[in-house]
Amino acid sequence: MTIIQCISPVDGSVYAERPALSYDDAAAVVARARKAQKSWAKRPLEERVSLVLKGVARLNEMAEDVVKELAWQMGRPVRYGGEFKGFNERSNYVASIAHDALAPLLIEKSDKFERYIKREAHGVVFVIAPWNYPYMTAINTVAPALMAGNTVVIKHASQTLLVGERLVRAFTEAGVPEDVFLNVFLDHDTTSKLIAAGSFNFINFTGSVEGGRSIERAAAGTFTGIGLELGGKDPGYVMEDADLDAAVDTLMDGATYNSGQCCCGIERIYVNENLYDAFVEKSVAWVSNYKLGNPLDPETSLGPMAHKRFAATVRAQIEDAVAKGAKALVDPKLFPADDGGAYIAPQILVDVDHSMSFMTEETFGPAVGIMKVKSDEEAIALMNDSKYGLTASVWTKDAERATRIGDEIETGTVFLNRADYLDPALCWTGVKETGRGGSLSVIGFQNLTRPKSYHLRKSF
Ligand code: NAP
User: Cα–Cα distance between 128 and 191 in angstroms, integer?
Assistant: First the structure.
């Protein structure tokens, strides 16, 4: 039997472990979800929405435990209070649009004909979630999928082993009927076999590009719909007329919050030559204010990365860039808690270019590269010189110029004068290797349902 473990980044101990389900046991769980789906979908939409919101409220009541568990599982400092703000905002927003988003599209209603397109739940939706924002990434699909009448099976990341279990407990205690929302502990092999057997009607995978490829391969030939929300290397572009302080504040926060482990974290910044020196100087000062340490200490503002292997990737990228001529500007002596393992000091590199993996591969850590640019054309070319495309953050006082530039950037979201925020009214989506599909917004509901056409002749 495979035992799945969560190794805590706090001290390297085994924080939690659970036995992985065998294929047959996992298939039995999916069968329960399938059996429960029809009666769940028959409940009035208002009732489903209300039960999901009760589940969200019940999780909020568990905040004290949730915040501590998050610190132990993936290192988020307790001072940030978990991820309830975004979790609640997204849930409430999708609840507020569910009625309209799922309403039939009426084409004709006359004495002779009724023609309309209904949105019908897919059936059983499988959610495979990552550890970096374990509640927020999961709720993006769990809430609208359940509201739309699907049942949901969730498999959470090993690093955040307890999150799926806790979410399901909260929703069940709040009155979501048995078997409508189920948690499974699975290894990769069983996950792939279940998918390959066509067990699910829709899969949402949020995680790495490699993970996404495996899921797509496993689903090949089953015609299962898949939403893939994968890695990124999101750029910022600061123009000569930008508000410097706001740009530094937002982009440095975007680069380093959650120890840089954000899918839409800022990983590379291009700054107009006229603002470059000031931007770099203020950014180094901004980042140097962090207190790196144990995430359970309320004074800590920067926790460890979720695992020492993730920090090792960041260190290797920095080392490679420095060997190729980059300069590291943040003084490591300011961060005595850096232990060469999961606890890693934030870093800013200059004299970087796109020959360095630090500027092209996902870093997913509290480190960012800053490059000087002379023109919009140069910045656009650099922003597009990436295999990823999740968000891009441009900084100027001229919204029209930003829109023109935004039209040229190969990305899922364009931000003007903000970054690293997921607006639940907009579609969360990526281009290139960042994946395909889209969650939240009306489009998220459409992706979690299928169209069914009714063509009714009422008289001859
Ligand atoms: P990951 O290693 O790909 O894992 C994501 C989830 O998929 C986990 O539950 C993992 O389970 C599972 N998984 C991975 N490979 C699998 C396979 N071959 N078969 C079955 N299941 C598999 O990603 P992560 O390290 O958790 O998350 C970080 C990545 O997610 C980053 O690249 C980040 O950019 C991306 N991300 C993207 C978005 C977005 O919206 N685009 C949002 C958040 C994160 P185990 O943990 O058990 O391996």
Answer: 9
User: Whole-prediction pTM value?
Assistant: 0.97
Ligand 1 pocket member 362 (CB < 6 A): yes
Does 207 sit in the ligand 1 pocket, CB within 6 Å?
yes
**What are the DSSP E strand ranges found in 110-245?**
113-121, 124-128, 151-155, 181-184, 202-206, 225-229, 234-238
Is the separation of the CB atoms in 82 and 66 below 8 Å? Answer: yes
Atom index in ligand 1 nearest the CA of residue 130 equals 26
Q: Which helix (H) or strand (E) holds 301?
A: none
Task: Give pLDDT tens digits for 52-79.
Answer: 999 999 999 999 999 999 999 999 999 9
Distance (angstroms) between ligand 1 centre and the Cα of 164 equals 14
Domains of the chain, each with CATH number or no CATH: 3-231+433-457 (3.40.605.10), 234-387+391-423 (3.40.309.10)
**Consecutive H or E run containing 362:** none
Distance 114 CA to ligand 1 centre (A): 45
* Ligand 1 midpoint to CA 22 (Å): 21
Residue 144 in contact with residue 150, Cβ under 8 Å? no
User: In angstroms, rounded to a whole number, what is the distance separating the alpha carbons of residues 118 and 171?
Assistant: 27
